[in-house]
Each structure stands twice: as C-alpha cells, then as structure tokens.
Amino acid sequence: MALLAASAVLYFNYNSSNYNNETAGRIVAVENTSAFPEWHRLSDGSRVKVWPKSKLSVEMNSVGRKVNLQGQAFFNVTHQAERPFFVVTSNLVAKVLGTSFLVNANGDKEFVSVKTGLVNVSSPKSKTAVNISPNQQATYNPGVMSLTATLAEKPQRFTSGRLYFEKAPAAEIFDELAKAYRLEINYDKKK
C-alpha cells in the first residue's frame, strides 16, 4: 500500500512539473522517425498524430499554444477559449479554439483540412486569410503566392488513420499510400 501511495505521489509530481514547465513557455520537440504515424498527447490535453519524417515543436503558456510543424500532422485540439491554438508552417498559420484538422506542410502546396470545428488559416506571404469549416481545406500555392479555400479532396481518408478504398484504381491507392506514409512507391502508371 505504501509503495502504491509513493508511486502515485511521484507520478502526479512528475506530471504536474511537466505541465507547469510547458505552461511556463518551455518548448517541447516531437519527431517521428518511425515508419508509421504516432499519436502524442500535449500537456493541454490536445492530441496530435505525427506522420513519419515529420517534426513539431510545441510551446504553451498562459496566453496561447503554438506548434511549429515540418511535415504532416492531424490535430484534435482541446477547447480553451482563453488560450488560442496556432499551428505554424513555412507558409501557413492555422488558428483554432477547439477542433480537429490536418495540416500538410509537405511538397509544393501546403494545406489545412478541417474535420470538425472552424479554423482560420492565414498566409503572411500572400497577406490573406480564410475561415474553413468541416470538409473544407485551405491551400497555399507558392508559385502564385495565393491562399484558396475549397472542399476537401478526400476528407474521410485522414480522420481515422485508416485508408478505405472501394473500386479505386491501383494508381490512386498507391498515391494515397505514398502520401500517407511519406514514401515512394514505384509502379507502372500505364497499367
């Protein structure tokens, strides 16, 4: 019994000290070097699914929550109206209060796609901002420095971490797998 009580005290002291350090503005780094997406829980209770070869740094304090992202991650953000949540990439800034959304900072076009809630996406380079809601996405095109809001191409595919295909051509399946796991799949595109 004494061992159980001591373990509980150590656990809560360790967790509360980690939370207090993060809320004081300490930056925490997360990098996924595995071959599969990984879930992480942030100190505010938000959850983030980090894709392979992706990195993020998290800074939380009493007035806000900020994540710098390289790569791709899906966010399920805990609602805290007094502490807005920002995801920053090289070309985009996504601001939310409580929602779930995907941010892709890979390749030529960066995008934010919303599953639930409302996200304000801005681009300092194009000096524009758009609000997007479920099944919409905002895409930044660096060639013309524009930010546009459209319907999400395939909103159901990024939400669960599982890919579902029904009567889809092999090329589409290979392309989606390559995007999801950030790898190159060689196949004969003519067949």
Describe what you observe in this structure.
With 191 residues, the protein is α+β, with helices and mostly antiparallel strands. The chain has one domain (2-159): Sandwich (Jelly Rolls), CATH 2.60.120. It has helices at 2-23, 170-181; strands at 24-31, 38-41, 47-50, 55-61, 65-70, 72-76, 85-88, 93-96, 100-104, 110-116, 119-123, 128-132, 136-141, 146-151. It has a seven-stranded mixed sheet with strand order 1-4-5-7-8-11-12. It has a seven-stranded antiparallel sheet with strand order 2-3-6-9-10-13-14, with no helix packed on it. The termini are far apart. 26% of the residues are buried. Residues 1-23 have low confidence and may be disordered.
> By helix and strand content, what is the structural category?
alpha+beta
From the N-terminal CA to the C-terminal CA, the straight-line distance is 66 Å
What coarse outline follows from CA principal-axis ratios? globular
Main sheet characteristics = 7 strands, mixed
Overall residue-averaged pLDDT value? 80
CATH class: Mainly Beta
* Helix percent band: 10-25%
Multimeric state: single chain
Strand order of the largest sheet: 1-4-5-7-8-11-12
* CATH topology group: Jelly Rolls
What would CATH call the architecture?
Sandwich
What are the low-pLDDT stretches, counting only 5+ consecutive residues below 50? 1-23
Number of strands: 14
What letter string, H or E per element, gives the SSE order? HEEEEEEEEEEEEEEH
Count of spatially separate domains: 1
